[in-house]
Amino acid sequence: MRGERQGNARLVRAGAIAASTAILAVAIGAASTASAGVGHPTTVTLVNGAPAFHGRVNSDHPACVSHRRVKMMMRQPGPDLVLGIDNAAITGRWFVDHPDFPSGEYYARAPAKNVPDEAVCLADRSAIVAVD
Fold first, then answer.
1. Tens digit of pLDDT for each residue in 14-46?
2. Is the pTM above the cut of 0.85?
């Protein structure tokens, strides 16, 4: 009887140690995933003035600004039309040259950007600018 109780106690201790180890591994994995996935807010602007289709990308993380892809979009029924794409300069300034733009509603979009081992840059969309 005594030997049976000692055997059961060992099994309980081994189970408790295994459960604690599993919980610790999950907690460490969650912490490392959370720190790697911290998103940096980004703001993209579209200036309502000449020259048409220019603006700026801003973020608290420099890697989210420099060489940031910006898509110039025109609203339309169905999927919106991509008029052009530019990569922002180090200063965050971008410009899309489009020879002919009809009346309509336009906006700029900066898709999310993942900078390995540095940052996750969140996506943003500018305010809509109406052109008559």
1. 444 544 444 434 333 333 333 455 799 999 999
2. no
Cα 23 to Cα 17: distance, rounded to the nearest angstrom? 10
Q: Which domain holds residue 112?
A: 40-131
**Whether residue 54 is found in the same domain as residue 107:** yes
Q: If you search the block for the tokens 């005594």, which residue do you land on?
A: 2
DSSP per position, 6-40: HHHHHHHHHHHHHHHHHHHHHHHHHHHHHHHTPEE
Q: Which candidate, 64, 44, 42, places its Cα nearest to that of 107?
A: 44
- Upstream peptide bond of 79 is cis (omega within 30 degrees of 0): no
Helix H or strand E segment including 2? helix 2-36
Instruction: Pull the structure tokens for residue 130.
Output: 């109406």
Buried b or exposed e, range 19-31, using 16+ CB within 10 angstroms: eeeeeeeeeeeee
CA-CA distance, 53 to 7, in Å (whole number)?
A: 76
Q: Which tens digits make up the pLDDT trace of 90-107?
A: 999 999 987 777 889 999
The CATH code of the domain that includes 105 is: 2.60.40
